[in-house]
Amino acid sequence: GAVVSQHPSWVICKSGTSVKIECRSLDFQATTMFWYRQFPKQSLMLMATSNEGSKATYEQGVEKDKFLINHASLTLSTLTVTSAHPEDSSFYICSARGTNTGDTEAFFGQGTRLTVV
Amino acid sequence: GQNIDQPTEMTATEGAIVQINCTYQTSGFNGLFWYQQHAGEAPTFLSYNVLDGLEEKGRFSSFLSRSKGYSYLLLKELQMKDSASYLCAVMDSNYQLIWGAGTKLIIKP
């Protein structure tokens, strides 16, 4: 299957700093990328959907000024957690969907565990 | 509203068979996915059903009935490594994935 690479796998940062997470589709072009967060023992929660070259669509309750998403190319999307606080500590996962007609499966990155201290 | 229901937790014995059910109510339907997620890891794709019937892939099979809004994931010859959460997700008319809360499967020796 297609490969989505997410970096970093884990990060610890100080409260008040910003953290950038990258999501790359390595062997296919991704029209759409999804960003999720997952708290322990809970299901995935969709944060936003980004389409290449346009602004991300955020889910209700997700602060777009805090979670900045950039999808500048068909192979890269970034999520920046700005002014991080301990409550932002979570598991962040991206997934990407291809550009070909009929592409329905979204492939997941390996996730980023963010700890804000 | 859109809703995906699956049991919270199931327990089975190594070597046995287990069926994880998923029922859904969504605005439109463009397929149903099953993912496996081990603790602390991202989900991995198991199966995709868009037509009614049974799809078999080795020890794992997935069934879909669109008229009933129902699917199940069948795991045979259970192994300890199958202990994980199993997520059911439906792609709606906007091609957005609607996720179930996941079923935690515990395998006992």
Characterization of this structure:
The complex is a heterodimer of chains A (117) and B (109). Chain A is mostly beta strands and 117 residues long. Helix content of chain A is 0%, strand content 54%. In chain A, strands 2, 4, 5, 6, 9, 10 and 11 form a 7-stranded mixed beta sheet that branches. The N and C termini of chain A lie far apart (37 Å). In chain B, strands 2, 4, 5, 9, 10 and 11 form a 6-stranded mixed beta sheet that branches. In chain B, strands 1-3-8-7-6 form a 5-stranded antiparallel beta sheet, with no helix packed on it. Chain B is globular and about 40 Å long. The termini of chain B are far apart. The relative contact order of chain B is 0.35. The mean pLDDT of chain B is 92. The A-B interface holds A 1, 6, 32, 34, 42-44, 46, 49, 91, 93, 97, 104-111, 113 and B 30-31, 33, 40-45, 48, 50, 87, 91, 95-97, 99-102.
Provide the fold topology.
The complex is a heterodimer of chains A (117) and B (109).
Chain A: E1 4-7, E2 10-13, E3 19-25, E4 30-38, E5 45-51, E6 57-58, E7 67-73, E8 76-81, E9 90-98, E10 106-108, E11 112-116
Parallel strand pairs in A: 2-11
Antiparallel strand pairs in A: 1-3, 3-8, 4-5, 4-9, 5-6, 7-8, 9-10, 9-11
Chain B: E1 3-5, E2 9-13, E3 18-25, E4 32-37, E5 44-49, E6 53-57, E7 60-65, E8 70-75, E9 84-91, E10 97-99, E11 103-108
Parallel strand pairs in B: 2-11
Antiparallel strand pairs in B: 1-3, 3-8, 4-5, 4-9, 6-7, 7-8, 9-10, 9-11
